[in-house]
């Protein structure tokens, strides 16, 4: 179990930089009282707040979150065990090691990559990790040896493999490997002949910029991508894939604006995304981009939480819940498990901020049930669970058990 929480790491880095609480709070545009609660471990900082604090302290966000987390469970160790092989394969992307046998036919590799992509969207990293190195090695050889359209298709599937690697590395906390994987997605996408795959690669790069607090750079990339998708549509008539990719870009922009302290712009982007979602019959996953009415609502709540308006975020969930004759909004079936668990992790932090400790515990438990490994490795889970233990005056075994499971 970790002996140090994110607030303690922030305090240590702040003192090393010889900054007062007030000075750091002013630098990251939050109140002194909020920073004090974060440092004491009574408040879970949002991803955007952590990024701003890390930038102000001139450290990486992973320095503050304590990533990568080294889990004890055997299943998670399977995901961790893939990291050395993935580093080697990403390093030798243009000069791969020899294979003992010839790669399987591209159609077989593509089917396996579809399976890997589904595991990624469901947050099943323990199952995904062991599959990735061998599949990437085969796809790399297929891409280098094929010719013509077959080669372009191989690079298209390889780009998806690098994307899965990026997700696995990021979720486990290996951010250097994640950044390398994003660059490899770009490399493969540029050779795939698919403009939307190239847009997807740039979208992932913008996401990495956001995690590092480079909001201006990420904003320019995303705004250019939105215009690029418009240019790709023949006679301004978008197909479903183009609409979904553009919608995902708009949602990413909404979160960016929220994290950058611009709630009005976030609301504008959410409205644009909502209008696009209303043109789709249902939620979609084109290019592994979750987009549709449900994801617009998920991002609306996330944007409020990122701006610190947790009270309004929870009120919105109750409002949507009333439409379902429920106390709070429940996600419809079929949403990617990683997306659904992330939503409940965010809501748990919001409930804790509003003093609802039992509700926070309930949402973390729901997230755990949806996607256990994703929930366990998410920094916000650990921060929220650790805060619940410190605030628990009844010594609730279930709360302590959740914190132990999360490594908090």
Please describe what this structure looks like:
- The chain is an all-alpha fold and 408 residues long.
- Among the domains are: 6-65, lambda repressor-like DNA-binding domains (434 Repressor (Amino-terminal Domain)), CATH 1.10.260.40; 76-193, no CATH class; 336-408, no CATH class.
- It has 22 helices and no strands.
- The protein has helices at residues 6-16, 21-27, 32-40, 47-57, 61-65, 74-81, 83-91, 106-121, 125-145, 148-172, 175-190, 195-211, 215-232, 240-259, 263-277, 293-306, 310-323, 337-353, 357-370, 372-377, 379-391, 397-406.
- Helix 2 crosses helix 3, helix 12 (195-211) runs parallel beside helix 14 (240-259) and helix 17 crosses helix 18 (337-353).
- The chain is globular, with a radius of gyration of 21 Å.
- The mean pLDDT is 90.
In short:
The protein contains 22 helices and no strands. The relative contact order is 0.10. Among the domains are: 6-65, Orthogonal Bundle (434 Repressor (Amino-terminal Domain)); 76-193, no CATH class; 336-408, no CATH class.
Biggest sheet details: none
Question: What structural class results from the helix and strand content?
Answer: mainly alpha
Distance between the termini: 6 Å
Low-confidence stretches: none
Apparent shape: globular
Helix content: over 70%
What's the total number of strands?
A: 0
**Which sequence of SSEs, written as H and E, runs from N to C?**
HHHHHHHHHHHHHHHHHHHHHH
Instruction: Give average pLDDT, whole number.
Output: 90
What is the overall number of helices?
22
Strand content: under 5%
Q: From the alpha carbons, calculate the radius of gyration and give it in angstroms.
A: 21 Å
């Amino acid at each position: 179990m970790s002996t140090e929480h994110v607030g303690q790491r922030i305090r240590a880095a702040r003192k090393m930089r010889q900054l007062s609480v007030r000075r750091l709070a002013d630098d990251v545009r939050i109140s002194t009282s909020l920073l004090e609660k974060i440092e004491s471990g009574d408040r879970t900082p949002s991803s955007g707040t952590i990024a701003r604090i890390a930038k102000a302290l001139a450290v990486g966000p992973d320095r503050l979150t304590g990533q990568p987390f080294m889990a004890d469970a055997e299943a998670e160790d399977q995901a961790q065990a893939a990291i050395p092989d993935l580093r080697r394969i990403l390093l030798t992307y243009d000069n791969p090691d020899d294979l003992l046998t010839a790669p399987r036919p591209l159609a077989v590799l593509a089917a396996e990559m579809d399976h890997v992509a589904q595991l990624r969207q469901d947050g099943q990293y323990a199952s995904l990790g062991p599959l990735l190195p061998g599949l990437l090695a085969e796809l790399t050889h297929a891409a280098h040896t094929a010719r013509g359209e077959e080669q372009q298709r191989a690079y298209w599937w390889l780009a998806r493999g690098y994307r899965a690697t990026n997700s696995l590395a990021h979720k486990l906390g290996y951010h250097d490997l994640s950044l390398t994987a994003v660059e490899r997605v770009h490399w493969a996408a540029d050779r795939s002949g698919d403009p939307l795959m190239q847009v997807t690669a740039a979208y992932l790069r913008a996401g990495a910029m956001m995690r590092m607090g480079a909001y201006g750079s990420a904003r320019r990339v995303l705004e250019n991508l939105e215009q690029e998708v418009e240019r790709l549509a023949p006679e301004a008539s978008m197909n479903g894939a183009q609409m979904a990719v553009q919608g995902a870009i708009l949602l990413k922009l909404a979160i960016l604006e929220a994290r950058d302290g611009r709630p009005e712009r976030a609301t504008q982007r959410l409205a644009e995304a909502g209008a696009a979602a209303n043109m789709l019959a249902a939620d979609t996953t084109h290019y592994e981009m979750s987009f549709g009415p449900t994801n617009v609502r998920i991002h609306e709540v996330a944007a409020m939480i990122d701006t610190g308006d947790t009270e309004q975020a929870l009120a919105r969930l109750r409002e949507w819940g009333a439409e379902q004759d429920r106390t709070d909004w429940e996600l419809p079936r079929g949403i990617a498990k990683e997306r659904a668990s992330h939503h409940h992790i965010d809501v748990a932090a919001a409930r804790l901020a509003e003093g609802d400790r039992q509700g926070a515990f309930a949402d973390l438990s729901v997230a755990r049930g949806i996607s256990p490994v994703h929930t366990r490795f998410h920094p916000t889970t650990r921060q929220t669970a650790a805060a619940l233990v410190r605030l628990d005056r009844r010594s609730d075994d279930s709360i302590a058990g959740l914190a132990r499971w999360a490594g908090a």
